[in-house]
Amino acid sequence: MTTPDKPVQAQRESISQQLQTLRQIYTDRRFWRFAPQGCLAVGGFMAIQGLWAVPWLMQVNGLSR
Fold first, then answer.
1. Which end of the chain is more exposed for a tag (fewer CB within 10 A), N or C?
2. Torsion angle of C-alpha atoms 48, 49, 55, 57, degrees rounded to 10
3. pTM for the whole thing?
């Protein structure tokens, strides 16, 4: 592996270009096919961590917040 001689200059996108890209993502059917599953999985994980795992660890292992 080698490093490049000169760093590549990245072109900055304008806000309107970024919003256009977000619009393309949010209007794509493929995104909406998987987005709810991802939200449910992450939401479920966060609920278990916050509502169950922390109090359980505090009680069982004597941990403090």
1. N
2. 120
3. 0.53
